[in-house]
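Reopening this ticket.

The earlier resolution said the output was attached, but the attachment link was broken on my side. Pasting everything inline this time so it's all in one place.
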Amino acid sequence: MNRKALLEAALFVSDSPMSLERLSKIVGVGSDDEIRTMLEEIRYKLGEDERGVELVETPEGFELRVKPEYRTRVAKLAPFADLSDGMMRTLAIIAVKQPVRQSLIVKYQGNKTYNYIKELEDKGLVKTEKSGRTKLASTTDDFEKYFGKSSEELKQLLDVAAKEVESKDGAKEDAESEPAEGV
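Inline output:
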């Protein structure tokens, strides 16, 4: 069995980045250096061919990603499948209000926020820094690469979406507060 092909297949089917240790177990290689060599060969091959994916190393491990220049065209096929709804809400709050106090996000979303922020940090999408008794959260450069747009463009899109939701909620509340005919 071709171990490099097995390594590439594992990266392809995984829904999250994979550590060197995990990849070593899958491929049956004991040396991190040997796995790194295979990863570099895959990265080189993907880079030299005109391919739509690239091999990247994140703080969580290695993963295959769609190249930035193709993301917008294919994003609707599997939009952000690796981010839960809670993580997306947390990320949206951070993107719009950054830098934002973690305690404020917890106020909006509850205690699960701590896990969401940790996972987003592990993915390299947000960073935090200590500020008094809380942390300040903001997006990273990888956030922009992941979504294929600048933070400012995404903030504008999120602002528009938030206003649409607010106007729909306001219209719904107005309709509910009007008395029914014949009452």
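Reporter confirms the inline version is readable. Residues 85-176 form a domain with the Arc Repressor Mutant, subunit A fold (CATH 1.10.10.10). The chain has two domains: 3-75, 85-176.
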